[in-house]
Specification:
alpha/beta, two-stranded antiparallel sheet, 12 helices
Length: 376
């Protein structure tokens, strides 16, 4: 799950109004031109674009009804009303919550989207096997926590849930499927999952990587107008066809130039690198905050001066106690483990210091509190 940014997804303030726009935002004119819309989501502008052909009548399922799977599938259902979207999970309480008046997570604008499409082309169910059999595209958005035991414990990603999902798909699927990695996974995971699927399955599977780039608190704007949609696959004919199929789904509302297709390994690595770069900025400004305290400089003034450089920009330059959420540290440690396993010790140490600096900042904060209380 994406964790960059604020962590207010557990707070339920007054919900905002859902923008009343046509499913394809068609309003004539050239694609990519910004047009003022008074009913747009706050802080966002909607793109006016020429009509795009609907994706073929694909049926989509998502294994995992969590922070990533739920909002992503709700947005696809909203933007592609001709596509049937089914969210699958073995947790009955979680599915019951998605089918209730109080959803299990809060994101501004999410309630309105779910209530608008639920029961029409958006469904939440525990009938996992049925959902797998009926789907053409299967997203997998399960948890990939840091391993607690075994080789790589404390750094490597635990892919237990992913492997269980893959084996379930292989055992149930009877027709060709496009299986999409939505969870944050290490590089080469698609290759391993493809081996599992084809070893145990009865049909053909095309495995794609489609990482999420959501921030808590802005997930709906991030889905409505993403900076980019990244799709990775194999470069053979089947892989390219699978990527095109998924790209056509997103192209219903995302300008095609923002839908990037790469090889599957580049896509898998890009998510880890994106979070690592953001975490680097946080650790860098926190390191500068220590210098400011020692020298009498004001870290907010330094941050503002540096952020006004167009090459740098102002985001993620706010000094704080450390990273918000768990994903930055989890993903960087995963990257460190991958570097070590590839024999890149110096590169691993470089990224490891981003996490170390974060830990140092937390220790400094606690020390200052204790000092301010006369070391008592």
């Amino acid at each position: 799950s994406g964790c960059a940014g604020a962590t207010n997804s557990k707070i339920r303030p007054t919900a905002i109004s859902l923008p009343k726009v046509s499913p394809d935002h068609s309003a004539g004119g050239e694609r990519g031109l910004f047009v003022p819309r008074t009913n747009a989501l706050p802080g966002r502008r909607l793109l006016r674009q020429t009509p795009i052909p609907r994706p073929n009548m694909v049926r989509i399922a998502c294994i995992g009804a969590g922070y990533v799977g739920g909002p992503t599938m709700a947005m696809i259902a909203l933007k592609c009303p001709d596509v049937t979207v089914t969210v699958l999970d073995i947790s009955e309480p979680r599915i019951a919550a998605w089918n209730s008046d109080k959803l299990p997570i809060y994101e501004p604008g999410l309630d309105e989207i779910v209530f608008e499409r639920r029961g029409k082309n958006l469904h939440f169910t525990t009938e996992v096997d049925k959902g797998i059999r009926e789907a053409d595209i299967i997203f997998v958005a399960v948890n990939t926590p840091t391993k607690k035991v075994g080789i790589g414990a404390g750094r490597a990603a635990d892919l237990t849930y992913w492997e269980l999902a893959a084996r379930r798909i292989a055992a149930v699927a009877e027709t060709p499927k496009i299986v999409v990695e939505k969870s944050t996974v290490p590089i080469k995971t698609a290759e391993a999952i493809s081996a599992v699927l084809h070893a145990a399955g009865k049909t053909r599977f095309d495995v794609l990587s489609n990482p999420e780039f959501l921030a808590e608190g802005t997930a709906i704007p991030d889905l409505t107008e993403p900076d980019r949609v990244l799709i990775g696959g194999t470069m053979d004919d089947n892989g390219k066809k699978a990527m095109e199929t998924l790209a056509n789904v997103y192209a219903t509302w995302v300008p095609r130039e923002r839908v990037l297709t790469t090889n599957v390994w580049s896509s898998e690595l890009s998510k880890l690198v994106a979070n690592s770069f953001l975490a680097q900025r946080v650790s860098s400004i926190n390191a500068i905050s220590a210098m400011c305290e020692a020298s009498g400089a004001d870290v907010d003034e330094v941050s503002r001066a540096v952020g006004m450089d167009s090459r740098i920009g102002p985001k993620f330059l706010k000094a704080s106690v450390g990273f918000g959420g768990s994903c930055f540290q989890k993903d960087i440690l995963n990257l460190v483990y991958l570097c070590e396993s590839m024999g890149l010790a110096d590169v691993a140490e470089y990224f490891h210091w981003v996490v170390k600096m974060n830990d140092i900042q937390k220790e400094r904060f606690v020390s200052r509190i204790i000092h301010g209380l006369f070391n008592t």
